[in-house]
DNA sequence: CGAGTTTTTGAGGTGAGTCAACGCGTGTGG
DNA sequence: CCACACGCGTTGACTCACCTCAAAAACTCG
């Protein structure tokens, strides 16, 4: 379900805008629900201009092409950032977690869409005010710069994955990557197979088959969203450096 | 020529480090030649701490894993930034041009390599001094932030390309992208076919075949490094949004 | 329990990779 | 000045990893 950005549908391709099909999503989705704030180890004179906002699973946080009016910082939940082609092919460029900024854009328009994977709460900042703060507070500027740089590094990792890794290596890399922020060897995947496929540049079938292979090889134990890493070293070896 | 980072050699795979083969490169390459400064429309109290440095074609500007001691800003020429896997597979994550920064890293180690594609001149800054400046001058911080953000956007474009575009679309996207900074419809490609392949996540054979196809379709005229765009609209159409 | 959705599995097709040979420009030395 | 070697790019024949289409299985929720 969910009104997420159109993914790689083969039969249902989205040319321009098809009303009635993808409409429900933005409608029900783009609705902040309740105001929660449960951030922790962080800094900022940004705090003074923050508004707490919450999004339901599948809610559109920002849309490709919309005017860039806000900057968000995730206080809980997972967000997927994506780009799409005119015919509906979709590439998730990254998953963002607590502490990450959503909506970093040098232009006045968002060039990527962002959707809440599960329930998400964020701090919302007015873009204008942020820019004023950046021009005054080196602390804020440094914070944003640091985040932007690490996103850049992550993006380079992903380009290496997309350009040069096999399907098996991609899935293994993905699992080790997600595994790093889980404690222990029990991983709960918050996103669907479609999301994973759109993130790894594969099809859902290939993702499924590859995970089955990992299971049959005794590297992991999979049951839907739950993954138990049985042999972490082997998994990392198959990732060829994550 | 070339002591460039090992590319996708199938026969000659680079396990760890093969002396005698790739040695010549770093040796002759890592040699600043002459100090030139021909930058223009730009700002910065950075200027005060800049050292002008020049690199020969193929020179290693920075190496994966080296301690991050400097930040560079290109004053002329083209630089390729790349990541490699242990077995030698290489992904060029971006080409950088005049005004771009090389060496943006949040860690104290470079995570990507950078090589001069042609002759390159740069302004070199001590990393420590830059960090001090960032902590003091919002102007510098904003400049770096802006650049980092646009690199991030470019990276997202590239992820979409690598994850979801066909070979034909990749090559067309690449040509329109390069074409944008060339004036008129005559493009001079400063990089080799191998570089293009490593940038587009393809093989040199596929790049070659695809360009041949574009030529046979009357979209472009190719002769080695020179490309004449005959039908720009058609090229952009084949790029599916660049 | 049944309708809808997500995931898995199967069977077959294909776009890009692999391996191999050749052409072409450039530099070098006899 | 030409023979030769070398690096780069092109072309051809064949293979295969992943995609496509299709259906079954497993889960979710009313």
Compact summary:
The structure is a homodimer of 242-residue chains. The first copy, chain A, has 242 residues and is an alpha+beta fold.
Q: At the first level of CATH, what is the class of the largest domain in chain A?
A: Mainly Beta
Principal-axes geometry of chain A comes out as elongated
Q: N-to-C terminal Cα separation of chain A, in Å?
A: 31 Å
Element-level helix/strand string of chain A: HEEEEEEEEHHHEHHEEH
Q: How many helices of chain A in DSSP terms?
A: 7
Name the beta content range of chain A.
Answer: 15-25%
Helix and strand arrangement:
The structure is a homodimer of 242-residue chains.
Chain A: H1 24-29, E1 51-55, E2 60-62, E3 70-76, E4 79-84, E5 90-96, E6 101-102, E7 113-116, E8 120-126, H2 127-136, H3 138-164, H4 167-181, E9 186-188, H5 193-200, H6 204-216, E10 220-223, E11 226-229, H7 232-239
Antiparallel strand pairs in A: 1-8, 2-7, 3-6, 3-8, 4-5, 4-7, 9-11, 10-11
Helix pairs in contact in A: 2-3, 4-7, 5-6
Chain B binds a DNA duplex (30 and 30 nucleotides) through helix 6.
């Amino acid at each position: 379900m969910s009104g997420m950005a159109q993914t790689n549908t083969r039969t249902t391709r989205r040319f321009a805008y098809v009303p009635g099909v993808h409409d429900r999503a933005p409608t029900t989705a783009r609705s902040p629900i309740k105001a929660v704030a449960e951030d922790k180890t962080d800094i900022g004179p940004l705090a003074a201009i923050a508004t707490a906002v919450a999004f339901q699973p599948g809610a559109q946080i920002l849309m490709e092409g919309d005017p860039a009016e806000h900057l968000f910082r995730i206080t809980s939940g997972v967000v997927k950032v994506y780009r799409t082609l005119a015919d509906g092919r979709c590439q998730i460029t990254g998953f963002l977690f607590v502490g990450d900024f959503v909506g970093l854009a040098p232009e006045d328009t968002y060039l990527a869409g962002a959707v809440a994977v599960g329930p998400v709460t964020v701090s919302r900042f007015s873009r204008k005010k942020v820019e004023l703060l950046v021009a005054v507070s080196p602390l804020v500027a440094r914070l944003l710069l640091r985040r932007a740089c690490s996103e850049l590094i992550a993006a380079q990792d992903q380009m290496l994955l997309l350009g040069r890794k096999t399907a098996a290596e991609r899935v293994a890399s993905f699992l080790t990557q997600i595994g790093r922020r889980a404690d222990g060897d029990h991983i709960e995947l918050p996103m669907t197979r479609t999301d994973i496929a759109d993130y790894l540049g594969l099809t859902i079938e290939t993702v499924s088959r590859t995970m089955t292979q990992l299971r049959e090889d005794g590297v992991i134990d999979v049951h839907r969203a739950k993954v138990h890493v049985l042999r972490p070293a082997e998994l990392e070896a198959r990732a060829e450096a994550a």
